[in-house]
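Lab notebook, bench 4. The sequencing result for the construct came back, and we need a structural model before the next group meeting so we can plan mutations. Quick request posted to the team channel:

Model the 3D structure of this chain.
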Amino acid sequence: MPQFLFLLIEAIYFVLGILAMINTLRSWRENKNRVLIAISIYVGAVLLRSLIDIFIYSADFNLDIILGGYLSLGMVIGNILFIIQVEFMFYLKKLTKLYTLPIIINFYIIMGRILVDSIIPFIIYAMIVSYVSAYNLIKDGRKKRNGLAIGMGLFFLLYGLGQTINIEIIFVIFKTVAMLALYLGTRGFYEKYVWPDEKMEEKILTTWISKLVIKE
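Done. Here's the predicted structure in token form:
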């Protein structure tokens, strides 16, 4: 029964990811913004990991292939996702000189995992990457009223939080909520309902005050 629950949640996560990617590509066709392609590639990489998890849950077994020492396939995929995430942030910030930095850091994390049975370096790295990325994206998104940036920031924050806790059921739930946040960002949810147009709000408030004055 728990395996079926994992499969159900993972399937919801995968469907939300597909919908988010479709919305992002649809927006790219309209304005040809290369950032949207970068987001689509990242989501596609995340969904590739999800496909592996769906196969594991549907086959009703728990398999994480050991590649060498204490290094597992899941750890390698996780490191690749974080490389893409950091590269995405550097791309947005136009820090082209730092493109090789995440590759070097992840190389040492992977080598350390081969030699030592400890995931603490990976967890610390995941926390730093996730929280710094989330802070920058949410801050910029709120400043520029960009719901997609806010959605990406919330995704990095919640996904990283679940990865840090490192308990399977919590991670699966957190990453599904994270994908929901990203999907809402691709749908324009935050612009419409969380941070609506300030001028429209001011107009509504002025009208409301005027009506109160007339009534008095």
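Strands lie at 66-68, 71-72.
Will bring this to the meeting.
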